[in-house]
């Protein structure tokens, strides 16, 4: 990677967006609307949709209502169900890309492997496996659920049968009549387990920590429902508002305001009642009952998951796994579960090294973002920008996401970023950097709100939640959605320093 721009050399593009999931798509649409159309999107995969491109395991679907899991400016009334399938979400991504004319500016099969800020040129040099791309500004839109995590179980590579990870499903994998083991009981397993149970000969689910599983207000949207959504005045808006409220009540409010709004306890009562209604065997029911508070980790929503454990061909194994062997999974006490197929529903690297950030990022004076976060704990002003890293913005930075809909997060953060970029254009600035003081103030505000967050109550001690990072922090944003929305439109632009390069080199094609 070169270290400085030749004087007067223009970057290849004004903006580089890394990732073609919904975050990247939302950023691209907003940039076009702001008439910042000299952007390039760089995507490691061969298609758009991010999580919905990569996650195609049986049963994959959204786990919040589709009325909230879509852009406010591209609301659909033709979702086939209240909770759309993964394939439908992938199609939604494709449609957005085509209807907004984005596709020709996406570079597929191109992986960013490093990024360095060129202080002299006021631009970023992105090192990709297909050569260097330079851009004045970079928007990181890689999400957090992009790198599948393998379990730290001895012998996991030694299984002689077929091993599959939910996040990289092989559609040639035959499960009918097979002895299948699933390790993990997170949101992916909650969807996968009931989908494959009817076809396999025997299904063993290896559970370490039970998940709170809540009923899902799902159902097809057809006939009269669809007619009403499409034709009744205000129906789409009313449905969206009801859906947003439901999402807010099922996670952000109970988790972040646990000490103020006692919704979590209500939710736990619903969860326990659901367990009683769904699971016949009291021993199995007891093993499926979480011992931590609702909200410590992401709950599951399914009308089929719990009842699957009533099936004769399904076993819930809660004894800890000792090792994976060539023949199957052995649990403590030397019980061997012989298997033909082992499914790892073991989630993703989240706040792990190598994922936050997903490639080495060097800011001013070679400052390394991962090392800076190691030393200073995860933090980013409004979840978007970090001092020492000018012209770099994140959609899903620390303390950005409050746990509601990702689409709301994307729209909020993109509004913030576009305000910065528009102001830079107005001022003819070529470098934008958040001040240390603004960043510190925001970080302090986030930490001050901990007292009410469920994560820091005793009840979460045994939840084994991936929300906790290696510093023991939970870098989720303790704010109701309405506040995140308001802040993105009102944050003080003086929280950033705007600087003009002495002989500004115009980006590729300022139109
Ligand atoms: P996850 O929530 O991280 O669950 C991983 C599971 O694997 C946990 O049950 C974990 O147990 C278990 N596990 C990991 N290592 C293990 C080991 N060494 N031994 C035994 N068990 C082990 O991952 P996920 O289910 O893929 O979900 C990740 C996130 O993706 C979700 O929380 C959700 O935000 C998102 N997601 C969304 C949708 C959607 O519909 N929108 C669908 C799927 C996923 P412990 O709990 O004990 O750690």
How would you briefly describe this protein structure?
It contains 13 helices and 20 strands. The chain is an alpha/beta fold and 511 residues long.
Question: How large is the share of residues in beta strands?
Answer: 15-25%
Overall pLDDT confidence: 94
Low-confidence stretches: 1-8
In total, the number of strands is 20
Binned, the helix content reads 25-40%
Which shape, going by the Cα principal axes?
globular
Distance between the termini: 29 Å
Tally of individual helices: 13
Q: Which cofactor or ligand species appear?
A: NADP nicotinamide-adenine-dinucleotide phosphate
Backbone structural class: alpha/beta
Radius of gyration: 24 Å
Largest sheet: 8 strands, mixed
Written overview of the protein:
The longest helix is centred in the last third of the chain and has 22 residues, at 406-427. This protein is an alpha/beta fold. Residues 1-8 have low confidence and may be disordered. α1 runs parallel beside α11 (406-427) and α11 packs parallel to α13. Helices cover 28% and strands 17% of the residues. The strands form five sheets. Strands 1, 2, 3, 4, 5, 6, 17 and 18 form an eight-stranded mixed sheet that branches. It is globular, with a radius of gyration of 24 Å. It contains 13 helices and 20 strands. It has helices at 22-33, 51-54, 86-99, 187-196, 223-231, 235-250, 252-256, 263-278, 282-287, 369-376, 406-427, 436-448, 481-490, and strands spanning 13-18, 39-42, 106-107, 112-118, 123-128, 131-140, 162-165, 179-183, 202-206, 213-214, 300-301, 314-317, 321-324, 328-331, 335-338, 341-344, 361-362, 392-394, 431-434, 496-499. The structure holds NADP nicotinamide-adenine-dinucleotide phosphate. Residues 61-63, 145, 151-153, 166, 183-189, 208-209, 298, 321, 345-348, 464, 466 line the site of NADP nicotinamide-adenine-dinucleotide phosphate (NAP).
